[in-house]
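Let us walk through a complete example step by step. Step one is to write down the protein sequence. Step two is to encode the small molecule, magnesium ion, as a SMILES string so that its atoms and bonds are unambiguous. Step three, shown after the inputs, is the structure prediction itself.
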Amino acid sequence: MAAFLEIENVSKSFRGLKAVSNVSLNVEEGGMVALIGPNGAGKTTLFNLIAGVFPADEGRITLAGNDILGLRPDQICDAGISRTFQLVKPFPDMTVLENVTVGALHGAQNIQEARKAARNNVELLDLANKIHLPAHSLTLPDRKRLEVARALATRPKLLLLDEVMAGLRPTETDEMVAVFKSLNQETGITILLIEHVMRAVMSLSHHVAVLHHGKKISEGTPGHITQDPEVLDCYLGEEEDV
Amino acid sequence: MMGVNFLADLTIKGKAGLLLILAILISLPFWSSSYIISVATITLYLAILGQSWNLMLGFAGLLSLGHALFVGISAYLAAYVFSVLGLPPVISVFPAVLLAILMGMLIGYLGFRFSIGGVYFALLTIAFAELVRISVDHMGFIGGTEGLFLPVSEGDRKGVDLINLRGHPFMFYYLAMVLAFLTLAGCRTLLKSKLGYYWQAIRDDQDAAQALGINVFRYKMYAVIYSSGIAGVAGVFYAFYQNSLFPESVFGIERSIEVTLGPIVGGVGSLFGPVLGAFILTPLGEGLTELIDFLKNSGIIDPKLKLNGLKLLIWGLVVSLIVLFKPRGIWPWLSDKLGFCRTEGD
Ligand SMILES: Nc1ncnc2c1ncn2[C@@H]1O[C@H](COP(=O)(O)OP(=O)(O)O)[C@@H](O)[C@H]1O
Ligand SMILES: [Mg+2]
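Step three: the predicted structure of the complex.
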């Protein structure tokens, strides 16, 4: 049977620069897959291709067997994919609750229902005591949490997380990892995450793909990846120096 | 009606303040002069237009600098069918508002389909308003530059005929008040609905809004439709209140700019801001005109002195001061100071 999300030989260039080069990747339904690689490897670009931000130069992306390449971002959301932005994009003049309510209105019958669902997501991401603050007053880690709460509120089948744990303290990282784990167990949500925090990658994902210069250079279990000499050479090795 | 619930946003103090203002407004004809009533009528009219304009910029982030277009074509249509066919405004308001909305949809379609954003969208609205102004200049059947006049008989200004909108100035005053109130309540309902949430999301970050499943094109169109529709209703009122329409004074860029000033002063994005702004600017401008006339008549200043631009100059000064010192407008600051509005979650 075909995988839930199938990325087949997808490429994308920006003015001659191959940001994503002939990448294929499968994500099984209910799976948690991590995408790692150095800065500029093309990870976010691959997310943007899945999310319909811009068209691919070539290749195919399917969700549950349906072609999704070429759909607009809002249609991608309708198809059941929700994403966070690495460079966070809160609605600055709306409160935390209003931000998340916008997400929850996707599929909700009315405002009351959406606000109630939004409240749950706000609590889940530990933002309850900031619920009525305008988003522009949040710290960066809280903005990252807001990104997640808002994306989750649309009730996606596939969640794309772009470096949402960057800047969190280790205990906070563990908390967020626990949230994703329990969501995955309880709702069966599929997660594809870009992450530099290896601690999170290791405990969350059962499958890891490594991008480098737009190409997928390795893929396998977290244990396998950390032993791969090519990965150690271009990415994980250099991490020690940072 | 849910919109009336804006009372729920107000504290006890806020409700008392609102009640006081309502009492003053309702009793105004009984103790003030006909001159003050005419100023108050125009103030309420501009409050409606400010609300309409604010719906686009303040709610959805769409800058219109051609709002006079929606007012004007609606006014012209209603006035024309009344003077030629005798069709009363209670009926012609429907095609008139529809025409305003279609105009809005045309501009919106061109702007949003081809992703003309920000300042360029504003330029598009100006271009259309100017295009229509110049076209009307050359349309003899609706008066061209000579203007379009509504028939008024002496008796008209005494009665109360809401079907034909012929009557005493007090009738227009109370009608403007009811329309302003309905617009305020309607805008509140919209702002608290799914539409309002989606508009604000688009205003704050279009890419994030789209990623959350919002069809940005469609919701921007809704904003233009509601906004131009309200402006269209105001246009019909304007036609029958003024009884004379000239392309320059109806579609001119000053008219479109005038609409923006109230909300900017009062507070773009807030519900009461456009109302407050209209109540600050209109009396200020009128008072100034009065003062100049008084000074001229009493010989303190040379009667031949031309001071036509002074009102705009003062308005410009007020707007500049607001933009510099209270960029979010007076209402958010004032309601905070006076404790008029409840903050959510209290
Ligand atoms: N919209 C864009 N326009 C032009 N170049 C881009 C764009 N998005 C990404 N790039 C370029 O593509 C490359 C990959 O970027 P990105 O996907 O953001 O990497 P990563 O997320 O792995 O750090 C970088 O060289 C970046 O400058
Ligand atoms: Mg990135």
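Step four is interpretation. DSSP finds nine helices and ten strands in chain A.
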